[in-house]
Amino acid sequence: xxxxxxxxxxVTFFVALVPNVWAAPHHAFSDLSIRxxxxxxxxxxxxxxxxxxxxxxxxxxxxxxxxxxxxxxxSLCRLEHSGGVLSSEPYGENIAAASGDFPIDSAVxxxxxxxxxxxxxxxxxxxxxxxxxxxxxxxxxASNQCMGLFKDQPLTPVTIYVCLYNPPGNVIGKAxxxxxx
Length: 181
Description:
Mean pLDDT is 85; it is low at 3-30. The protein has a domain at 54-177: CATH 3.40.33.10. It is an alpha+beta fold. The chain has six helices and five strands, in the order αβαβαβααββα. Helices cover 35% and strands 18% of the residues. Strands 1, 2, 3, 4 and 5 form a five-stranded mixed beta sheet that branches. This is SCP domain-containing protein.
């Protein structure tokens, strides 16, 4: 009897030490039929377009097709770029995530937070440059609530935003005509 109890204690101890291989970020909203509300669409467009106007870029139009792809990527709760797997056509992409209160305008502010790193004399391709890229005409975005997205906060709900852009920006050699200060 004693050896059986000791066996269970040892097994329990080792099971507790082994990481849960099935543990992946949990997505709270996996229904891909849920689309952005008109209010959310306006927030995505207005926030982007105010920034674009400062940089002499025309206003973006909403793309339901891009939004569906963004919604799919957001539903996976992966804080990484899709690597082009969402479409056979190229697209631009920005992703941001945070815990706590993280509305759309804060996500877009995150996208442009690297603006001060842009040097027209030596163009680099950043999240900011995608937002203000002049030849981009369409935008589609989505968000999702995820658990476990931040490894150091596995029980904290995190909002992830994915925005896709068409045509894509950040084309090497095209920054001078597409990014204006």
